[in-house]
Amino acid sequence: EEGTFIVGSIGAGYVGAITSIILAARQPNLKIIVCDVMQEQINKWNEGRFPFYEPDLEKYYDIAVNVNKNITFTVDVGNCIDQSDALFICVNTPPKVDSDAVLGKEADMTYFDAAIRNISNYGNPEKHKILIEKSTVPVGTYKRINSLLGEKIQNPEACFTIVNMPEFLAEGLAVQRLLNPDRIVIGTTEDLNGQEAFEVIKGLYTNTETLFLKLRTPSSELAKLFINGMLAQRVTSMNSMTYLCEKFGGSIQEVQRMTGSDPRIGPLWLQASPGFGGSCFEKDILSLIYIFESEGQQAQALYWKALLNMNDAQKHRILDMIISEFPEPESTTLTLFGFAFKKNTSDTRLTAIAYIANGLIHKGYHVKIHDPKVTERSFHFEMEVQGFNIVEKTNYEFCGSDYRKAVSGSSAIIIGTEWDEYNELNYNELITLMDGDKKNLYDFRSYVDVQQIQQAGFSKVFKLGN
Ligand code: NAD
Questions:
Q1: Is pLDDT at 152 greater than 70 in this prediction?
Q2: Structural domain total, the chain
Q3: Per its UniProt record, what SMART domains does this chain match (predicted)?
Q4: Residue 162, Cβ neighbours under 10 Å: how many?
Q5: Ligand 1 contact, 286 CB (< 6 A)
Q6: What order do you get walking across the sheet with 333-337 strand by strand?
Q7: What is the CA radius of gyration of the chain?
Q8: CATH code of residue 84
Q9: pLDDT of 308-331, one tens digit each?
Q10: Which of 91, 134, 281, 346 is the pocket-test mutation for ligand 1 (most atoms within 8 Å of CB)?
Q11: Residue-range definition of the domain harbouring residue 422
Q12: Is 90 noted as a catalytic residue in this protein?
C-alpha cells in the first residue's frame, strides 16, 4: 500500500525472525519483509516449520502471518532492501576463525559487510533509509558502514542514517522480552538526522511504558559487548565459588541469597552452572578482548580473558568429578540430561555440555544424551563445530526426548540443562530402569529438589555447590 512504512530485516535467524514476527504482530500498520540468503531457512518460515524452538513464538507468528498478514519471508535480499524504509541488519557476527590475535578474537564481519554491500547495490538512492545495526558489532562499525557505502554512493549522508540498536533478546524468554523490553537503546549521532531516526524508530513500538535510551553510537556499540561481559562475569564468579562451597560445607544457594540481597549487587544472574554457553557471551568477550589487544591495552585484555579461562576450568572440574566417580568406563553407562545451552531453547551453540559429552565419550563410557528439544542433527553439528570428533565412536547414543531409552542401564543421570521437567520427573520409576553398583544423580544446575529425588533410592544426589 502507498504510504505504508516498510521495515526490512536482513537475516532470518534468532534475532531477525523473532524481532520481526513480534513487530509484525503488534503493529498491523507496518509491513515487514524478512530476507535471508539461506533458502532452507526461508522455506521453513514460510511453511511454519520453525527452525528452532522458542516458547510462545507460534502464537505471534500466527497473528502476523494469518491475521495481520503483514510479514513476508523471502530470499530476495535486493527487493527487501529496495522496498524498506528502515532496515534491521541481523546477520551473524561470529569470532573470526583465522584471527591472528593472541588473546581475543576479532568479530568476523564478512556477513555483515556483505549485507552492507548489498545495500549499496540495491538501495534506491531516492528513498531515505535508516540502517539499523542489530547484529552485535565492534565499536566503530557505524563509521565503517559509511565508508563501505561510500564506495558506491556519492553522498551517503543524504540517503542513509546509520544507527546502532543492540538486541537484548534472551533465547527462551525472547517473546516476553520483546513484548516488554527493559529498555530500548538507540545509538545515533547527535545531529538532526540522528534525532529524526530516533523518533522514527520509537514510533515503530507500541510500548508506551518502555524507556527509550538515546546514546552516542560508539557508546551503545561498546555497552552491548560490555553487558554480555558483565553477565558472563556474574555467573562465572558464582561458578568459581561452587568448589569452595563443596569443599567447606557451604551452599551456593545460601551464598547466592546473601550476595543477591546486597542491593549493590542484586539477585539476578547469580545461578551456578557447568559453565556458560550460548552464541553470544564467549564471542562478545573475545571481541572485547580483541579490541583491547589491538589498542595495546594488555591488562584489560587479560582481565576479560581470565573469565573465559575460568569458564573452561568449570567444565574441566565437572568432567573430572564424574570420571573420578566411575573408574570403569567400558562397563559404565552415563546419561546426560540436557544438551541445549540453557532451558527453553533448542539452541546448542557453544553449550558447555558438549565438552562434557566429548570427554566422557573419549574416555570410553557408554553415553546417552537426552534433551526435550534438541535434534540429533544439532547435536552432531554442535560437536563438530566445537571441534569434538566423535565420528568414529560408537559408544554413545542420542536419545532425543525418550526418557526410558536415555536412562535404561545407566549408572548416573547428569543434569546439564535446567529444563523444568527434569525437576518434575518420576524418579521412582526412572531408577528402576537404571543399572550398576551405584545409581547417582548429578545436578550441575543446582536446582533440583534433592530430598524428593533422594527418596527414589539414589546412592547419591549431588547438587553443584553443595
Ligand atoms: P543466526 O545465525 O541465527 O542468524 C543470522 C542469519 O543471517 C542466518 O540465517 C544467515 O543465513 C543470515 N545471513 C548471513 N549473511 C546474510 C546476508 N548477507 N544477507 C542476508 N542474510 C544473511 O544469528 P542470531 O543468533 O540471530 O544473531 C545475529 C546477530 O545478533 C549476531 O551479531 C548476534 O551476536 C546478535 N545477537 C544475538 C542474540 C541471540 O540471542 N541470538 C541476542 C543479541 C544479539
A1: no
A2: 2
A3: UDPG_MGDP_dh_C (SM00984)
A4: 27
A5: no
A6: 396-400, 366-370, 333-337, 412-415, 440-443, 460-463
A7: 24
A8: 3.40.50.720
A9: 999 999 999 999 999 999 999 999
A10: 91
A11: 326-463
A12: no
